[in-house]
Amino acid sequence: MLVSVGRKRSTGYGIVPQRLHRKSEIFMRSAYSATVVLRLIIAGQVLALAQVGPDFITLRESVEIAPSTSGRLEVIVDDRVATSKEIFMPHGTADGLKRVLYL
Q1: Average pLDDT, the chain
Q2: Which of 14, 18, 35, 78 makes an SS bond possible with 6, Cβ 3.0 to 4.6 Å?
Q3: CB environment 44-65: b (16+ within 10 A), e (fewer)
Q4: Mean pLDDT score, 71-86
């Protein structure tokens, strides 16, 4: 945030301050951080995700997902659904792995 100090002069575009000084960093910074929730919904069951990539998801906990399963992938930012799409998991989970490929 910029604060005006000193005398102001008029220009054809309005009032312009002669000198500008920055306020203390304490007043400029915000301690805001978005809350992000990643989840997969399969037949009404909600599964928490650790990561979402362009063609894969990583489950927070090992869960068996059968091959040829469809579900809804949701990314929620600050309690609002930012992304929601149907995905198809042709291979399901393999050998207890948490990473699942999707189309």
Answers
A1: 80
A2: 18
A3: eeebebeebeeeebebeeebeb
A4: 95
Q: Dihedrals φ, ψ of 57, to 5°? A: -130, 155
Max distance between CA atoms of the chain, in angstroms, equals 73
99 pLDDT tier (thresholds 50, 70, 90): very high
Domain boundaries, the chain: 36-101
How far apart CA 39 and CA 87 sit, in angstroms, is: 12
**In the block, which residue shows the tokens 């998801």?**
57
Question: Given pLDDT bands bounded at 50, 70 and 90, which one contains residue 30?
Answer: low
Bridge partners (DSSP) listed for residue 49: 59
Alpha-carbon distance of 73 to 42, in angstroms, equals: 9
